[in-house]
Write a structure and sequence with these properties.
Layout (H helix, E strand, L loop, with lengths): L1 H6 L4 H12 L4 H8 L3 H22 L1 H34 L1
Helix pairs in contact: 3-4
Length: about 100
């Protein structure tokens, strides 16, 4: 998820590195080979990208808000199920 958030604020080169390393699970060496750069260049780029994400997260709380939203959605779903379940049972009695 953090990769998705960062991909909206990172430049294209950072996105390419991030996608190959995190989403496609390539090693530093494999990413380096793909772009014909050193492993150190890939490592440095990923480190800068991660720091960029952490700076945005500290200021905007995007990931924390996303996690909180997921938690609240789960709670709402549980509440709705408790409300709907008796209705379904009652409807079943009415049909039969």
């Amino acid at each position: 998820m953090r990769y998705l958030i960062l991909s909206t604020v990172a430049d294209q080169k950072q996105n390419d590195y991030l996608e190959l390393y995190y989403a496609d699970d390539l090693s530093l060496g494999e990413v380096a080979d793909e772009f014909q750069v050193s492993r150190q260049a890939v490592y440095d780029n990923l480190k800068r990208s991660t720091q960029l994400l952490e700076n945005y997260e500290a200021k905007l709380h995007l990931y924390a808000d996303f996690q909180n939203g997921k938690r609240l959605l789960k709670i709402c779903k549980a509440i709705l199920q408790k409300i709907i379940q008796p209705m379904l049972i009652y409807k079943h009695w009415q049909i039969n």
